[in-house]
Design goal:
Elements (H helix, E strand, L loop, with lengths): L2 E7 H10 L1 E2 L3 H6 L2 E2 L6 H8 L6 E7 L5 E5 L5 E5 L3 E2 L3 E9 L5 E2 L8
Antiparallel strand pairs: 1-4, 2-7, 3-6, 4-8, 5-6, 8-9
């Protein structure tokens, strides 16, 4: 199993859990796909796109259960994108992303950069 990661607000994720599927955040809806990051990209994604934001969750997704397209993005890196909704059956775990005193996101203890 290969894990990809999505960061979003806890309230958007709570809505997805109620509806039993995830369509994405407002940025995803504008872009037409759900943005994901690999394990070695997600910390930088948090720093660049979610700096200082609280009330976030880190969603871990089994990429073998969805059809991802890897496309060039930031600095020529390939990022995983999902064109369509994310079924909750592909979600492995959801963890809060807390802010440390210096405003950096603290990733869950089980998270490891590969």
């Amino acid at each position: 199993m290969t894990i990809v990661y999505k960061i979003c607000s806890a309230s958007i994720w709570q809505q997805a859990e109620t509806e039993r599927f995830f369509l994405g955040s407002w940025v995803d809806l504008i872009d037409g796909f759900i943005h994901f990051s690999s394990a070695d990209q997600v910390v930088e994604t948090a720093r660049l796109h979610f700096a200082g934001e609280s009330d976030l969750v880190l969603i871990e997704v089994d990429s073998t259960k969805i059809e991802l397209v890897w496309e060039e993005s930031r600095g020529g890196q390939l990022f995983p994108h999902l064109y369509g909704q994310l079924p909750l059956s592909a979600v492995v775990s959801v963890s809060p992303l807390f802010l440390t005193a210096d405003g950096v996101h603290e990733f869950p203890q089980h998270f490891q950069v590969y």
